[in-house]
């Protein structure tokens, strides 16, 4: 009992807040050495400080809690090294992405908000039968959620033995920004009347009609100016948006040499 340290003192020692210590206990990362049955007060041992520091550092470098749990549970140094190497690569990829976004921001500022010339056109499109799934995401999770959505719909089509009938697209039913979580729909065009197996993937027909459209060439993360141009053009023409915008992915990210080669169509449905 002499070795036990109250949670407040262990918090100061480990530089982890009491709230964080309780959370890590709930997640199975760092359980207290003893919990007083009468008061529920938590006590730790000095020997737990090393594990607490490892958790603190791993969270500072943005390793997900689940991966930290797996890493700390490993007794095999080789496997632990592989987990750290995988996260190191993830951090390198993130750094490269952030540097690329900074270059994009510099171009955006230098050119007064116009990074590339967008030509807006209108056209009539037919109703589109799709297999789709509706998902919610925040700005922080939208990339991961979309990836999962494409995998889910693609897997359902594979299970049904159905080949996509056109390029996939996403319908953004809500605005998604730093403050707002919103709903989006991942869609794969399919033959009309396609029967989907039971599960989260549904069949429906996305309404056709007149749309305002432009083509964005380059990384998906740099597509916002295309939205600015199309919505501005619609307003200038005295037209009215009538439905959620769509992004149609005209080539496969796995088949291009770099994100600069990606081609995406942005469509806004227009009122008749």
TrEMBL record:
DNA-binding found in the keyword field: yes
Tell me the CDD domains matching this sequence: HTH_BmrR (cd01107)
Tell me which Pfam families the record gives: GyrI-like, MerR_1
Classification via InterPro entries:
AraC_E-bd, DNA-bd_dom_put_sf, GyrI-like, MerR-type_HTH_dom, MerR_fam, Reg_factor_effector_dom_sf
Q: Which SMART domains match?
A: AraC_E_bind, HTH_MERR
PROSITE patterns xrefs: HTH_MERR_1, HTH_MERR_2
Q: What is this protein called?
A: MerR family transcriptional regulator
